[in-house]
């Protein structure tokens, strides 16, 4: 990085207000379309009130996910044109290895086609029937792979971590005393402890470096390795630097290295960190490395590509290096903070403090007239699409599954997630999101529930179809038309 490069993600206005600002310029664009509210209503109906089933031609701002939807830098795109296509021994892989070693300080790298593939390999290598895997909180694919291998998870967040509104800066922290207890009660059954950076499903909430260190000591002193899910580590590092006194004097590369050194295995989805595609597992421990190595050619591809194209590998190498730039890793969380803070000031219930990957809206508080059976988060996501053409994601009861008797299991939180893919949306687009969400909040009594008309038994949130209970979508669209006249 050029020493003159700005390494912040916000500037101060004369009023003293801090404004998140784009330390990049847009040179390749994709046209997007905002359809009239009548079309948005028809589109969400055609999609069975499930935003996963919307075609992007009906979507204005796609805030479904930050996975594989981030903007690449010019240097990443340039690197893709010098990719060395070889089945074995590719120079692209060597460049990735070098960049990943620099960032994480770990010697060995196993490539995988994405984050969940890394989880598959780790779980097949270490998890057995009867295994117990303690962690701060699960991620959907992690839990599935641990259970597929016959293990079970223990989530050990500290009390209050799933409270939507909080002033706790590190809601992703693990309860270290509970971790020690689980380790001692399950001697010989814990293959590893897992810590997830910027804990995805509770609103992108970080853990502190001190907490990671304590978890690492608890695990290692008992001979148990620590596995770090680093998919959202860039943002977690940015939060550490801003929110943890002990990190404020450290550089971004120092915090990365320190966090990584506390783990025995680091894995990540490069669809998130590095704004590229693919994934990888890193370790400096030969015993752990050899326990996983031979699964890569079996499930992913040869050891120097792991199911990725060499173009992806090249863009990942550059993207990992760029993760040391505060303006790169801070862009998405700084915009999220701006949006969440303004929504909060307007009385819209959002998850606080603001986290990584998206702005999370508390659907239970937004729609108090709905009960759990009405799927409040699903209803809010559908209503917000009608009100804005913005595609969010349901992260509540629809995203989990029923118990063995077919009964619904209430989710810890009912959230609408509005993801902010890295460097994709501008501040005026974010202000539009804010405005339409505030409009919806003013009109929240119009919103009713949803019910399933087609419910797949597994991962129903991806492909299930629902319908509105009553004609609330029509009444909401009509109110929008009255309030905005002929406008979009
Ligand atoms: C996205 C994600 C994964 C899975 O990665 P994919 O590349 O989507 O398979 C794992 N862990 C976390 C924390 C994630 O955010």
Major sheet strand order: 4-10-9-8-7
Give Rg in angstroms: 22 Å
Overall shape = globular
What value does the average pLDDT take? 96
| Structural class by sheet pairing and helices | alpha/beta
How many domain units? 2
What are the segments in which pLDDT stays under 50 over at least 5 consecutive residues?
Answer: none
CATH class of the largest domain: Alpha Beta
Query: What is the first-to-last residue Cα distance?
Result: 42 Å
Give me the CATH superfamily of the largest domain: Type I PLP-dependent aspartate aminotransferase-like (Major domain)
- Measured by DSSP, the beta-strand proportion falls in 5-15%
Structure ligands? pyridoxal-5'-phosphate
What is the CATH architecture assignment of the largest domain? 3-Layer(aba) Sandwich
Q: Number of helical segments?
A: 20
The amount of helix comes to: 25-40%
CATH topology of the largest domain: Aspartate Aminotransferase, domain 2
Largest sheet: 5 strands, mixed
Total beta-strand segments: 16
What's a concise summary of this model?
This protein has 488 residues and is of the alpha/beta class. Helix content is 40%, strand content 13%. Strand 5, helix 5 and strand 6 form a beta-alpha-beta unit.
């Amino acid at each position: 990085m050029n020493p003159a490069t700005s390494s912040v993600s916000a500037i101060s206005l004369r009023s003293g207000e801090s404004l998140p600002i784009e330390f990049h310029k847009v040179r390749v664009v994709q046209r997007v379309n905002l359809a009239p509210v009548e079309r948005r209503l028809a589109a969400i109906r055609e999609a069975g009130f499930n935003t996963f089933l919307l075609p992007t031609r009906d979507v204005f701002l796609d805030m479904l996910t930050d996975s594989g939807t981030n903007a690449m830098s010019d240097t990443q795109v340039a690197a893709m044109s010098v990719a060395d296509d070889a089945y074995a021994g590719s120079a692209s892989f060597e460049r990735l290895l070098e960049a990943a070693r620099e960032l994480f300080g770990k010697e060995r790298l196993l490539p995988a086609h994405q984050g969940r593939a890394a989880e598959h390999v780790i779980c097949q290598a270490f998890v057995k029937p009867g295994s117990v895997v303690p962690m701060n909180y699960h991620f959907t694919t992690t839990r599935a792979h641990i259970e597929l291998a016959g293990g079970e998870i223990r989530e050990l967040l500290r009390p209050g971590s799933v409270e939507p509104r909080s002033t706790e800066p590190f809601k992703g922290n693990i309860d270290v005393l509970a971790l020690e207890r689980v380790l001692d009660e399950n001697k010989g059954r814990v293959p590893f402890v897992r810590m997830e950076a910027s804990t995805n499903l509770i609103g992108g909430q970080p853990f502190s470096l001190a907490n990671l260190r304590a978890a690492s000591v608890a695990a290692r002193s008992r001979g148990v390795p620590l596995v770090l899910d680093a998919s959202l580590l860039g943002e977690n590092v940015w939060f550490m630097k801003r929110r943890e006194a002990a990190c404020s004097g450290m550089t971004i590369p120092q915090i990365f290295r320190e966090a990584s050194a506390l783990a025995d295995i680091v894995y990540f989805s490069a669809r998130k960190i590095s704004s590229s595609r693919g994934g990888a597992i890193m370790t400096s421990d030969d015993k752990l490395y050899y326990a996983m190595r031979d699964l890569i050619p079996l499930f992913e591809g040869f050891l120097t590509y792991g199911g990725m194209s060499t173009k992806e590998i090249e863009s990942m190498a550059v993207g990992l290096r760029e993760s040391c730039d505060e303006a790169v890793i801070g862009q998405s969380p700084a915009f999220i903070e701006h949006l969440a803070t303004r929504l909060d000031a307007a009385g819209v219930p959002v998850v606080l403090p603001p986290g990584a990957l998206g702005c999370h809206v508390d659907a239970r508080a937004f729609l108090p007239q709905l009960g759990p059976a009405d799927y409040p988060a699903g209803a809010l996501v559908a209503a917000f699409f009608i009100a804005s053409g913005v595609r969010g994601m349901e992260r509540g009861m629809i995203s989990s599954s029923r118990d063995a008797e077919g009964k619904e299991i209430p989710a810890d939180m009912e959230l609408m997630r509005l993801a902010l893919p890295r460097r994709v949306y501008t501040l005026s687009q974010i202000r539009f999101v804010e405005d339409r969400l505030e409009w919806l909040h003013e009109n929240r009594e119009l919103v009713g529930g949803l019910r399933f008309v087609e419910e797949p038994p597994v991962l129903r949130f991806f492909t299930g179809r629902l319908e509105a209970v009553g004609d609330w979508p029509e009444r909401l669209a009509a109110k929008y038309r009255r309030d905005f006249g002929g406008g979009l």
